[in-house]
Amino acid sequence: MKLNEIVNKKELAPSVKLFDIYAPNIAKKCLPGNFIILMVSEYGERIPLTINDCDRAKGTIRIIVQEIGRTTQELGKMKVGEIIPNLMGPLGHASHIEKFGKVVCIGGGVGTAVMYPIAKALKEKGNEVITIIGAKTKELVILEEEMKKISSSVHITTDDGSYGKKGFVTDALNEILSAQKIDRVFAIGPLIMMKIISEITKQYSIPTIVSLNPIMIDGTGMCGGCRVSVGNETKFACVDGPEFDAHKVNFDELLHRNNRFAEEEQHSCKLQEK
Amino acid sequence: MRKRPVEERIKDFEEVALGFSKEEAIAEATRCLQCKKPLCINGCPVQINIPKFIKEIAEEKFSNAIKTLKETNSLPGICGRVCPQETQCEMFCILGKKGKPIDIGTLERFASDWEIKLDQRPKAKSQEPRAKNQEQVKLAVVGSGPAGLTCAGELAKMGYDVTIFESLHKAGGVLRYGIPEFRMPRDILDSEIQYVKDLGVQIRCDVLIGKTFSIDELFEAGYKAIFIASGAGLPQFLNIEGENANGVYSANEFLTRANLMKAYDKQYHTPIKIGKKVGVIGGGNVAMDSARVALRLGAEEVYLVYRRSEQEMPAREEERENAKEEGIQFKILTQPVRIKTDDKGWVKEIECLQMQLGEPDESGRRRPVPIKDSNFSIPLDTIVIAIGQNPNPLIPSSTPNLKTGKKGTIEANEAGATSIEGVFAGGDIVTGAATVIEAMGAGRKAAKAMDEYIKNKL
Ligand SMILES: Cc1cc2nc3c(=O)[nH]c(=O)nc-3n(C[C@H](O)[C@H](O)[C@H](O)COP(=O)(O)OP(=O)(O)OC[C@H]3O[C@@H](n4cnc5c(N)ncnc54)[C@H](O)[C@@H]3O)c2cc1C
Ligand SMILES: Cc1cc2nc3c(=O)[nH]c(=O)nc-3n(C[C@H](O)[C@H](O)[C@H](O)COP(=O)(O)OP(=O)(O)OC[C@H]3O[C@@H](n4cnc5c(N)ncnc54)[C@H](O)[C@@H]3O)c2cc1C
Ligand code: SF4
Ligand code: FES
Question: Do B366 and B448 lie in a common domain?
């Protein structure tokens, strides 16, 4: 096997793909919460993706990618046997895992893939894990089986009601919080989802961790493009995060910041389709 | 030296300075007095034998000239372009007392370009190991900026098996991601890097030391000594309101998008967004580069906002002049206090205070003091913060027992030795943001010290 070779590929849902990549140095060290930065071609962008799982014996890491723009679509087209030209990691702080007691892990969309290794580590530390998976529609629900293996219960919500309960993850969360005492909440998904969850858990004073997804370039603390405001301090998500105390994050600022290149991204996607 | 006309050069990223033709170089070299006690050498951080190489140019012995330069400077093509000669060699040149000093930088560049462009460079072949016991001694270098490249090249020449670890996907350090192509053409940089590779150095990109491997793990992997040259890559911010607004870049982000990721070239996918009115905060080389990149990306008006006066600006004189020629507007004695945004979070204007110069501060430059109630605003769409870089904390924070100084620099002695045996450091990570030539000089010194260290140990 060659370094950065794709050794396995699977479609988990329309436009959501799983890759196992031979990267033994990263596989050897990576911990839940770490991510990588990769490029799909010399001309490509550097994009961050969470390490969903790793196999230390085989020297492989697993990433799960949602195709939402040019780079992720190009990655989605790559085949088993092809080599990812550039891949660096493991980056970011690992998740802080200890025995908290009863925890709720919420994954929205492809955020479920980012959540999985953290939920698994929480379970291994002796926590009781209650999982909420949210998706737009039935076929976008991912990792249900994997989550079931490590959770005491898995709650699924879909926006259109085609699977699980109709509604949002926040509805499921409200239901859980009103019925039992929860020690900690972990939420990963679209920013707006994390923002609303943070508002809910604040009322209950439950410590809540979110994994932020700002736009990144180097991933080494060099450009400051990934900066976020946390408790009135500026933090670089790539080196200080990506996980932060949800109750201190300025979500509105980050919602704006992630739109910085919206026009250019649209354009880039159109070019790609031609 | 000839330069490309302003109207032409501001539309592209091709080199602005054209250098000397052979005739111009010989004419300039002939002007040199060949002083008995050449003062210029004192001004050179690596003590190039300046009159000697100039004489060799005057006598058309270009290959000798390049040899003389390379005795102490491994990257003359780069230094000839980016050294602040006006505060180094040329400042001391005796001819400068009455008239124009010798244009030492452009002569240096000439000799190097002659070698590279005419492909006169002696082909580097992996050198024979100098002593038997040096065979297979593996050494590691962290960072591929001027300090790392120089140290690795020197060590390879001594016969060591050297690997450079670089976190970005391309080698070169600031020369790659920071200094724009119109000042530092990439073919020159590529050829310098190729030369180091030809000497037998392996460059492994996409490896972040402190994350992918720790310093300890490098030792475990069999590297007998390590040179840390990770530079000063941590951008400083003003810590004012509105700094995280959309449209505010650190100079590192702005320049990295433009230079490393080539956002100005449609073939490349990384975006860069530039408004009509751009304000660059700062007065150093980084600020000049940012302002001139903004112009080339299509900005209509570019302001350079600096809190002292032009005299105190740390940028090279040549770049200051180039920037002014190109229409960059200097707003001196101006201190930003707040960035105002629209309801979508985009930059609208910057509020500033007018300053005046007071007593000299610890840097010897006159300290800017705010004038009370002098607040005024400049409407802007894009802001680039170029007020300095600190050492990247990643390696110090992941390496227990590595002693650091006040500003997060790694502590190292003259020779580059740090508080950990076998670990050496040099360049911006030790000095804080400085110059290419100093980084290169530190790389050379460390290479010597590492050689001695290995010899004593074996
Ligand atoms: C720490 C971290 C972990 C992540 N993990 C995963 C994961 O496991 N699976 C997954 O599918 N996605 C993950 N993402 C998001 C992923 O990086 C983006 O979806 C991807 O960069 C989009 O690139 P694009 O060119 O396909 O789309 P574009 O059309 O360029 O952008 C679409 C959206 O993606 C975001 N984005 C664009 N460029 C970048 C960039 N360079 N860095 C970060 N975000 C960007 C922007 O918000 C943008 O609006 C993660 C992001 C971060 C910061
Ligand atoms: C925009 C700009 C313009 C400049 N203009 C001039 C000029 O005109 N003249 C002049 O003399 N000087 C100039 N300078 C300063 C000069 O470039 C620096 O002083 C010099 O590059 C320092 O060299 P270095 O080798 O110490 O570090 P750098 O050039 O910073 O290289 C460090 C390298 O190490 C890598 N790295 C960092 N951390 C790690 C890690 N943990 N693992 C692996 N790799 C790592 C980085 O990615 C980088 O490639 C300028 C600087 C900038 C930013
Ligand atoms: S000081 Fe000037 S004139 Fe004298 S040797 Fe140096 S470059 Fe030539
Ligand atoms: S991605 Fe550049 S500093 Fe975080």
Answer: no
